[in-house]
Amino acid sequence: MGATGSKLEKALGDQFPEGERYFGLENFGNTCYCNSVLQALYFCVPFREQLLEYYANGKTLGEAEENLLTCLAELFSQISSQKKKTGVIAPKRFVQRVRKQNELFRGYMHQDAHEFLNFLLNELVDILEKESQAAKCPPSQERIANGQNNARSNGVKEPLVTWVHKNFQGILTNETRCLRCETVTARDETFFDLSLDIEQNSSITSCLKNFSSTETLNAEDKFFCDKCSSLQEAQKRMKIKKPPQILVIHLKRFKYMEQLGRYKKLSYRVVFPLELKLSNTVENADSEYSLFAVVVHVGSGPNHGHYVSLVKSHNHWLFFDDENVEMIDESAVQTFFGSAQEYSSNTDHGYILFYECLSSDEKS
Fold this sequence. Notes:
Strand content: 25-35%
Number of strands: 20
Distance between the termini: 40 Å
Order of helices and strands: HEHHHEHHHEEEEHEEEEEEEEEEEEEE
CATH architecture of the domain at 27-129 and 162-170 and 192-197 and 244-357: Alpha-Beta Complex
CATH class of the domain at 27-129 and 162-170 and 192-197 and 244-357: Alpha Beta
Number of helices: 8
Radius of gyration: 22 Å
């Protein structure tokens, strides 16, 4: 344990970032799905900073009732305030809280990291919204519509935009064009992550193109056009209207196989770039992103295996495997793209990708 820490400190030497902490997380019986997501979120710096600010404000206001948000804030505070630069922390209270809140994560079975991330972000939002309602009348400027659908003045409350939304939420537009009258119906929906179908020997860019490709609705799938007042053939496509600050991409590696009657893991090779341009899906073609974390699924099947994470911090790449933390070379990231052949000894595949939007001065 100490050896790992000192080894990492030696590897970084005088390049060890000022004030940064690299701590492994203890595994409490198959909690690697949780640990890998926590590391990715900890190194999502804007999210971490806002969570620590929330924790500091909470302490000054007095003891809040324990919930998932206070447990996460306490854990992040515990890591960031360690005297040592490296080591291991046991996220016991947080894991206990997760298991108390959601029976899905109660057993010691292999869990899905993407389901956990979804659960966690939505739970944090619920807690922040309840706190805001309890505090009554949040500042009016914080209330903005999530999309056109929500901006109705019929007494329906516009949703509160929390700092979780500000980091992770984007807006998709679902456009349907009636092929008879050419009327376009657009419906906005919000998202915290994009789940992409994958193909063998593909890339994130091609997966995003497929996500936004045009689909024809005909036969049994015809669309009810309000203008024509009848079912019509139509074309439908999904576009990213407002890209998020932190773009989370979930690769759909677990596919239900009808003939097998169960899920199968797709080990397909999907190239994810260190720098990603979203020009093919967004009206504002200026969205450029930089990869800063990858949650990796290790194993050949969906019901067993292990999760680890790769994280970029201060231009260094680190590998987090529960208690162990080590430095890796940037070139090692490509070994997690997947396998070009069906049966391969490499079972370490990128599963959830975290990209941060580059500000205009960061773009090369």
